[in-house]
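Revision sheet: structure tokens.
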Amino acid sequence: MKLLILLVESTLDRLLALGTVTLGAVSMGHDVAIYATQSASFAFLKDYADKVTDMAYDSSLRGFIGEVMRGYNEVIINGKFFRWYEMLRQAKEIGNVRIYVCTQPFELAGIKVNRNDFLDIVDDLVMIGKYVELLEWCDRSITL
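Predicted:
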């Protein structure tokens, strides 16, 4: 199966889901393409990837989310879990994963970027036309 993942937010919970779903899919032999746009594009910047700490949540879940974040930080520090981009790196090592980052959010913000500004797991900087191509390529598409 060819899976396209559209990533539209840079919250930690979405990035962790991205890493987990991608690693799981390639472990099962599927090809994965990731198209990051909107705030998700910024998460792939070298200087930003480790700074993503917020999770999206309803205020009634604040206590639970605080415990999740403490647990996450503890397992990362103790080497028992991987950061979201490390999961993507592992997925690329074991299967066919391509990561595309949309540059439109940067252009809208007046920020000039080039390939060297991004994590080494990013395959290409693209615009919406690539997303349309990927929709034609994939068997299934999900949005995170």
